[in-house]
Amino acid sequence: MNAVKLTPPTGPVRATIPLASSKSESNRALIIDALTNFRCDLQNLSTARDTQTMIRLLQSGDPVADVLDAGTTMRFLTAYFAVTGQQKTMTGTPRMCERPIGILVDALRTLGADITYLKNEGYPPLQLNGFSPSAEANVRIRGDVSSQYISALLMIAPTLPNGLTLELTGAIGSQPYIDMTLEQMTYFGADATADWINKVITVKPSPYTPKPYTIESDWSGASYWYSVAALAQDETSELELLGLKAKSLQGDSAIVDIMRPLGVESTFTDTGVLLTKRPTETALAWDFTHCPDLAQTVAVAAAMKGVVLTLTGIESLKIKETDRVAALQAELQKIGAELVEIEPNHLYEVRQVATTNQSAATIETYDDHRMAMAFAPVSMRQEIVIEEPGVVAKSYPSFWDDMARIVDVQAMQAGTNVAG
Ligand SMILES: O=C(O)C1=C[C@@H](OP(=O)(O)O)[C@@H](O)[C@H](O)C1
Ligand SMILES: C=C(OP(=O)(O)O)C(=O)O
């Protein structure tokens, strides 16, 4: 078992964190670039494994596209390879083959893609057998399972002979990710409009225009530093996060507002954002429907500060890298807190149940980068061991290097007594 042991800092926390760039923005830019025959000049692409996998698979002539555990890579490439008529087997990790894709496959079939399931109906692996465009340009699609299906369809829509009209049904989750897709498409010359009142998105057929594009730093990755600032014991602590903008395409920039009641003030500078400490409130209620990737970060920060956190909008967490609700329930206990389901699959509460200062709680990470990164800030207040720290490579490969700027990060190898 590999692990890292993090030891609390002794004085104030003061560091400048370079951050990874956004894998969400990167993976969209890469699909659009591919649709211009790779004529865009993309700058600051993410080093995240999800993005590196996207780059590799776009360049590969291999008939098998193994996306590993990258959801956006699976969904965006399925749509891209399908409508560009490439015969590919789409597969991934065992967990990826448990993450649903039927909603996207049904929509692509309506548009003329020939797709078969190789194992379980509705799940990867898939076989893409070719594309003969149908006259149909209207697709109804559920908005409450994953926005990634919608983004995948929108990005390929300008290449369809009749464009695409998407009618979204039911509740819409992760909407800022759809807005990000539309903004990036529009930047590259697409004619795409969203009518959010009637939940209809229309994309006209027209080629993308190749242009230079620079990816912003990753706000989801920034959230862990917000948690570090929230949990830092010394009131004079401050962190500078580089490459973030006040006006971002990323919905996870909501962390600025979420963390204010948890004691973090944000000041935007020419180079990024400066985090300083402010007074903490006793309770916080947040709807994570549009920023699901922040839920783990905030749950751990609230648990450690003894702030009662009411969460809604976390239904989609069950179909991500792991069942994140179950994973949080199991691991929060180890830091003296609990995640209680108040209303089935809707309303949850995080409460601190013990103010213990257990030494070196050992946190399992469930093949989920966000479990590792969400629990790392606990090290502001107590020693903590994080198992399988390599999971962070999915979105933020340099996370532990950045963490080592503020705490002692000690690698522990297989067979070591990590609780020692
Ligand atoms: O489009 C994207 O880049 C993403 C959308 C979200 O997924 P869902 O739409 O499935 O919530 C988010 O959780 C994921 O990390 C990235
Ligand atoms: C859910 C995530 O990614 P994906 O769905 O792209 O695998 C994530 O990064 O938290």
From TrEMBL:
Every Enolpyruvate transferase domain range: 10-59, 65-403
Protein name according to UniProt: 3-phosphoshikimate 1-carboxyvinyltransferase
UniProt record, GO biological process: amino acid biosynthetic process; aromatic amino acid family biosynthetic process; chorismate biosynthetic process
Record field: catalytic activity: 3-phosphoshikimate + phosphoenolpyruvate = 5-O-(1-carboxyvinyl)-3-phosphoshikimate + phosphate
Job description of the protein: Catalyzes the transfer of the enolpyruvyl moiety of phosphoenolpyruvate (PEP) to the 5-hydroxyl of shikimate-3-phosphate (S3P) to produce enolpyruvyl shikimate-3-phosphate and inorganic phosphate.
The organism's place on the tree of life at top rank: Bacteria
Quaternary data: Monomer.
Xref: InterPro entries: Enolpyruvate_Tfrase_dom, Enolpyruvate_Tfrase_sf, EPSP_synthase, EPSP_synthase_CS, RNA3'P_cycl/enolpyr_Trfase_a/b
GO CC annotations, alphabetized: cytoplasm
Ligand binding (3-phosphoshikimate): 23-24, 28, 146-148, 174, 293, 320
Pathway per the UniProt entry: Metabolic intermediate biosynthesis; chorismate biosynthesis; chorismate from D-erythrose 4-phosphate and phosphoenolpyruvate: step 6/7
Binding site for phosphoenolpyruvate: 23, 71, 99, 148, 324, 370, 394
The keyword Metal-binding appears for this protein: no
Residues the record marks as active site: 293 (proton acceptor)
Protein's gene: aroA
Keyword entries, A-Z: Amino-acid biosynthesis, Aromatic amino acid biosynthesis, Cytoplasm, Transferase
Keyword hit for Zinc: no
Organism: Spirosoma agri
Subcellular localization: Cytoplasm
